[in-house]
Amino acid sequence: MSGTRKGTGGGPTVVFAAHMDTVFPEGTDVTVKREGDILRAPGVGDDTGNLVATLEMFRALNRANIQTKGDLVFLASVQEEIGLLGAKFWLENAAVKPDMFIAVDGSASEVWYGALRINQFKFFYTSPGAHTLESREYAHPLPGGGQSGHRALRNQASGIQQGAWRLQTPGDQRRPARGLVYRGPAVARQQVAGHARNAVVSTAKRIGEQEGVGFRMERRMAIDYSRAKPQPERPNHPVVQTSLAALNHYRKPGTPAIVPADAGSTDANIAVSMGIPGVSIGAAISHMAHRLEETAEASTIVPGVKSLLALAVALTTH
């Protein structure tokens, strides 16, 4: 879902994107419970709070009748958690061609200007079917799927040392891989960095051979970063520096100064891959994303909206 707030002309077009999906399955209780300053709910930080803050930023601009020179685009994306698919489709097909892209996704204590190189694999382990009571002495696919997922989760794939899951991002900067593992009866789906993929695949194949079961693989989400701007250029772009200034101005008192990081696993990855200056920021301080215990600090939301307002006006008008 997207909409454009037209400017008066003469300024850049800036997208503010937040995603509507979460990692939690349908039926999960997402009722927000408040305990003092703490808001508790699955997805409250990633990305419900940021989506609400982005909407409120646009509403505040309208209430105050603030005019910007450039256009502001509101984008509520989908399928971010399963491969940034919504943002990718929108950026490739929308009539709007943004000059800058801001993913409001994450904690207000972070400014990310990079993009992790991520590949997703599905490993299938197969064997002839048989009744459980009659198949105990035969090879079964379950151990293969379980071992594959376990080894990826524990960073123990062959040829990779503990703590050494790293990858190359544009500009020869090394960043940790994002490890998400989903295990099913005979399927292990793993999201790994490009640097680790050969070791992960070879380990998965070897597990199938050891268990005496069939093996096949599906791969997707290899984002093409050939058009990405060089790493030395990205942190100095106004979208990064202005984001940094806005978030530091409104950051929670007593917290450390925010510094930019060459990392990112958000919708901004797609913009970065297309050569569009992009950044990922948050509007509230949140903790334990992708966990049922996820929380956000209520008192940081209003300052977070103010930081988005300052950023929107500064980038489109000044």
3D architecture notes:
- With 318 residues, the chain is of the alpha+beta class.
- The chain has helices spanning 44-63, 85-93, 141-153, 197-211, 238-249, 268-273, 301-317, and strands at 2-5, 14-19, 33-35, 38-40, 72-77, 100-104, 111-112, 118-126, 166-169, 173-176, 180-183, 187-193, 214-220, 260-261, 278-281, 286-287, 295-297.
- The relative contact order is 0.22.
- It folds into two domains: 2-115 and 225-317, Aminopeptidase; 118-220, Alpha-Beta Plaits.
- It contains seven helices and 17 strands.
- The model is unreliable at 155-189 (pLDDT under 50).
Report how far the terminal alpha carbons are from each other. 28 Å
CATH fold description of the largest domain: Aminopeptidase
Strand content: 15-25%
Helix fraction, binned, reads 25-40%
In short:
This protein is an alpha+beta fold. It folds into 2 domains: 2-115 and 225-317, Zn peptidases (Aminopeptidase); 118-220, Alpha-Beta Plaits.
